[in-house]
Design goal:
2 copies of one chain form a homodimer. Chain A is α+β, with helices and mostly antiparallel strands. Chain A folds into 2 domains: 2-75, Glutaredoxin (3-Layer(aba) Sandwich); 85-190, Glutathione S-transferase Yfyf (Class Pi), Chain A, domain 2. Helices cover 50% and strands 8% of the residues of chain A. Chain A has 7 helices and 4 strands. In chain A, strand 3 (55-57) and strand 4 form a beta hairpin. In chain A, helix 1 (11-23) runs parallel beside helix 3 (67-75), helix 4 runs antiparallel to helix 5 and helix 5 (126-144) crosses helix 7. Chain A is globular.
Chain lengths: 200, 200
């Protein structure tokens, strides 16, 4: 059985939970609180030298880090990964977009507003994070105005990867009323079989 | 035939050139200078709404952005992508590591020192970029002290993705003499069949 080493209210960790639930794959969950330094312990660094959650413990005792690599591993051979070469590349296109152009702004804004005290000096980063985050949302909005999902016309791990921090973007101060196609897509993702919400 | 819309001295664009050359796939190259705003023109944004190079123009006229998604698309069914499920996930693990934990520090430090004038205020970012970049190099060094390549024991697109900005890390002020296993790996990558260097 798989074991997920993760922080339940992290969007990157939620991606793995949502995929496992939707695929009906049994798993154990070990809570690791990165905000308390638990990803920097010698024991955790032996699992993932990059010191990040989620990290998937495989049945043979190996460890696989990086949320979107875990999604791809879990989804191969299932309906969550497109069947054709270009469809798979499109899923990865949006998953790399998520990690480079979306998460570093939208997830980090949420982190600052959600986890840090109101007088944190990191609030000075928010204007830049808002500007870049809204740019990522605009790219998504343009796509979703024409297509129901991100890759190959069907729900896939690209939607899971982007849903994780988009649906809770308000936690980072983003107003999704500006992007109605994203709001509709969020409802479509919530309506997928075996959907589970981000734990509070 | 594929057309690469790219900036020749960008590491992200070089990844695509190196893979195409090593696979023996013919292509055209259209130079796009992002430092002159050419990725923000209406004509370019119609190709990639996220306004970044490289963007691969497919034979059917479609466009595929994101360097690492392009690598995966080109490598499917070739020796550059591992044959087994876990090997493919390991390649993606390192490619997501590259885009999240490596490129934003090592490539950005290079950009500041290589493209911007010596009195650029962005030089104030360098201490943080150096700290994070050396952390990424340490994670790579630990892996390469035990393994010849990043995924499944053989040269793959994970090596191409990480080589692009690692081999020229000195441009960003990084001293690779501190990481001898990386220096040895760089020599192994340079020794691969059909290797081409980053254009000057």
């Amino acid at each position: 059985m798989f074991t997920v080493h993760g922080k339940s209210d992290s969007g990157n960790c939620y991606k793995v939970r949502l995929a496992l639930e939707q695929l009906g794959v049994p798993y154990r969950w070990v809570e690791v609180d990165s905000t308390k330094g638990e990803t920097q312990s010698a024991a955790f660094l032996a699992k993932n030298p990059n010191g990040k959650v989620p990290t998937l413990e495989l049945e043979d005792g190996g460890f696989l880090p990086e949320s979107n690599a875990i999604l791809h591993y879990l989804a191969e051979g299932t309906p969550l990964l497109p069947k054709d070469r270009l469809g798979r590349a499109r899923a990865l296109q949006w998953m790399f977009f998520e990690q480079y152009s979306h998460e570093p702004y939208i997830a980090v804004a949420r982190f600052i507003l959600y986890y840090l005290p109101p007088d944190s000096p990191r609030r000075a980063e928010l204007p830049r994070l808002q500007e870049r985050g809204y740019k990522a949302l605009a790219v998504m909005e343009q796509h979703l105005a024409r297509e129901p999902f991100f890759a190959a016309g069907a729900y896939s791990i690209a939607d899971i990867a982007l849903f994780a921090y988009t649906h809770c973007a308000a936690d980072g101060g983003f107003d999704l009323a500006r992007t109605p196609a994203i709001v509709d897509w969020i409802a479509r993702v919530r309506g997928q079989p075996r959907f589970v919400p981000l734990p509070a």
